[in-house]
Specification:
single chain; about 425 residues; alpha+beta; 2 domains; six-stranded antiparallel sheet; about 50% helix; about 15% strand
Length: about 425
């Protein structure tokens, strides 16, 4: 008996030593990948071009097409996905002929070994989809079969099984070259419906219906000929979010749903345009929604809030800047007060998911617009491209940054966004 216990203790000690060794090899003191900076407006322009060119609603099922994605494009896509679904590790893609590396760095809680978990996935081109060659966790190499198992578990844990199955069914081949990947794909008859099911699963549809019904009830009691402050709509919808969260629902998910419904309403779109089931829901009567007495501010505010709440604050900033740059070139001109509405909305969307219960509590009772949107009527607007360049030196110049700093200072002074 003593011999058995002794052997058991030795085995346990050996396993503990192996675990400590593995932890020491896996965890490192420095990140392999640095956090990337903000997405710039030209990235948004590029993404929109790709989406328009490869929209499944405009393509014949079964027709093979190709999309060329640069290393930078894939970096943006993977970083956005990591921020949205995996808690925000920094990701980098390295493309070479017939080979690809995906590197990621995730900050860890305090521990004796180091502050970073660094991952490096190595892929090789095949006749269809790239195959895993090896996964390294820090200095600890893992065989391909174990890497495949780990990635399968990660996809399941992140709730991305349907996404992965859709990608496997649509993408037929990936060609890897220096700095470029070419994806050959064919949309299927049901691709649009499957994309919608992935983007808006059944629980999310139920949430969206609840807020659509509340907005429909609110709109029925308001005069459509009179302007309605965004504050008059935010409070009751976030009161509903508080009620549902108190009953056990996830507060961040509820806040997102409220923002989605409001964003669609102020931009003049029906949810049914992206979710056919919504055609059978009560439809809110259109309202003339304003913020700081302007009809365009609610759109800037809520679209930016939506993008930020979906885990893409850099994207929210870039989308706002993209709109202003294109306006300066072809539309009404560059407007710093529109940028302020974008930034306030982004801050609101971030707060909606980072401190969801606190925001719900803060919105209890009617709040004035000044609590979430500062006065920016004095900021320059309607600047043509040449005038914007002359006065502020262009995007990123010192004079431009000075105005942005002023905007941030004003937002920091509001009751809800400080």
């Amino acid at each position: 008996m003593r011999t058995f216990v002794k052997r058991l203790l030795i085995a346990a000690a050996g396993l503990l030593a192996l675990a400590l060794l593995a932890a020491g090899l896996a965890v490192q003191r420095q990140p392999l990948v640095a956090q990337r900076g903000d997405i710039v407006w030209t990235d948004v322009e590029r993404a929109l071009q790709l989406v328009r060119s490869h929209d499944p609603r405009r393509s014949r099922p079964g027709l093979r097409r190709s999309v060329v994605a640069s290393q930078h494009d894939l970096d943006l896509l993977l970083n956005h996905g990591a921020r949205r679904w995996l808690g925000g590790p920094a990701v980098r893609v390295l493309l070479q002929p017939y080979r690809a590396q995906v590197q990621a760095s995730l900050a860890l809680p305090a521990n004796p070994w180091g502050g970073w978990l660094n991952l490096e996935l190595r892929l090789r081109e095949t006749a269809d989809l790239p195959a895993i060659e090896r996964l390294s966790v820090g200095r600890l190499p893992l065989p391909a079969w174990l890497a495949e198992f780990a990635l399968t578990r990660l996809v399941a844990r992140a709730g991305l099984v349907a996404d992965a199955e859709l990608a496997r069914d649509v993408v037929q081949h990936v060609s890897l070259a220096q700095g470029v990947a070419t994806l050959t794909y064919a949309w299927q008859v049901d691709t649009s419906q499957r994309v919608l099911a992935v983007l808006v699963p059944a629980p999310e549809q139920e949430r969206l219906r609840a807020y659509t019904e509340r907005l429909s009830t609110l709109a029925a009691g308001l005069d459509p000929a009179q302007p309605v402050s965004l504050a008059q709509l935010l409070t009751p919808l976030f009161e509903l979010a508080h009620q549902r969260s108190s009953a056990g629902a996830d507060a961040a998910d509820e806040n997102r749903a409220a923002i989605v419904v409001l964003a669609f309403h102020v931009t003049g779109r029906r949810l049914a345009s992206v979710m056919p089931a919504a055609r059978h829901w009560p439809q809110p009567r259109w309202l003339h929604v304003t913020l700081r007495q302007r009809p365009d501010f609610p759109q800037h505010f809520l679209v930016s809030a939506l993008l930020a709440a979906e885990g893409s604050s850099p994207l929210a900033n870039a989308v706002g800047l993209y709109k202003e740059v294109t306006d300066a070139r072809h539309g009404s001109g560059f407007s710093f007060n529109d940028m302020a509405a974008n930034r306030a909305g982004t801050r609101f969307g971030e707060r909606a998911v980072s401190a969801p219960a606190a925001l719900q509590a803060a919105l209890a009772g009617q709040r004035p617009e000044a609590d979430f949107m500062p006065d920016v009527a004095d900021l320059p607007e309607f600047l043509p491209a040449a005038e914007f360049k002359r006065r502020f030196g262009g995007v990123g110049a010192p004079a431009y940054q000075q105005v942005l700093a002023d905007i941030e200072s004003r937002i920091n002074a509001t009751a809800l966004l400080r």
